[in-house]
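Field guide to reading this record: the first block holds the primary sequence, the second block holds the structure written as discrete tokens, and the final block holds curator observations. Each block starts with its own label. This record concerns Succinyldiaminopimelate aminotransferase, catalogued under organism Acidovorax temperans.

BLOCK 1 — SEQUENCE
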Amino acid sequence: MNSLLSLLQPYPFERLKQLFAEVTPPANYSAISLGMGEPRHPTPQFIKDTLCSHLEGLASYPATAGDIRLRTAFTQWIQRRYQLDLNPATQVLPINGSREALFAFAQTVIDATQPDPMVVCPNPFYQIYEGATLLAGAKPYYAPSDPARNFAVDWDSVPLDVWQRTQLIFVCSPGNPTGAVMPLNEWHKLFALSDRYGFVIASDECYSEIYFRDEPPLGGLEAAKKLGRHDFKNLISFTSLSKRSNVPGLRSGFVAGDAALIKNFLLYRTYHGSAMSPIVQEASIAAWGDEEHVAQNRALYRKKFAQVTPLLAGVMDVALPDAGFYLWAKVPDALGMTDAEFAKALLAQYNVTVLPGSYLAREAQGSNPGAQRVRMALVADTEECVEAALRIVQFIQSRTA
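BLOCK 2 — STRUCTURE
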């Protein structure tokens, strides 16, 4: 067996299952889960119809690079969204969801024959970053987010000797779980570091279309262009239809950026056997070509967050995020509970599931930046999310009165 498998830590939801193993939720409350970030708004009908009308695609092996019509759909969307002109033949590739591609990309980029390769990732973080790093033979370095700066990652805290060994850095903007969007000056800092030390930047942008401000979130490729980096050197962005179009089961997205990296990633994927089904390609072309359903989806989240956030803000340190569909809330000090104890007691008393923030982070540099926070995924309908918020308010008030 691959000895590196022993380095992997349990996934947050496995830890949550263990935490709740001896809890019997009250039967007089219906179960409401804010624990898993799985989109639950309805899948648009036109995407379903497109899938069903192209079943002849089952009879063909797909090309790993995807149909040129699909890659053109990617670049057309990029042009509309970011006003960027990319080459569909060399600067984009289809992927089977961002999770699959983030893992595979690390295997492509990391050279474990070099001494002590490092990968820098935010902390808290999406656990795929860590697993991909470890199984590629590198070591993760966890750069903490700073609550005082809207949960911006403290890149300045990364030591010089780490930067010198860094081969890859994961950026998540909008962030999971904090919802923070990285501003242009932070991108400028990372690009300068990349130029100095030669590492690749993987920009995870799967939450980019769910936002609450007037201006949509800044993307990595967009930031590169604003800073005069028209070749997107050492930069690849990852995006997906899962959250944007409510199709997590479709497993469809794309990567875009540095043509040289795209070329090598395509080589890896050819051997990896990760070609996208022709049926999924057709549905993806339809989805990327329509923005009306995306605007409707965004409006649902805005309505939901507008009702839920003020309720919780009355009893917790929590605020509307820049983007994404999570609330990153602090457990009140007055409760005298850890984040895990809070989650366990909330389920036991009110049948509401939240995810302990410490499960989404690692103890590093003397602290766990996810400790004493919980992540709440507002993915259910508005009525259910409001009901969950009211129960959380009751739970906190009952223990602090």
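BLOCK 3 — OBSERVATIONS
Residues 292-313 form the longest helix (22 residues).
The mean pLDDT is 97.
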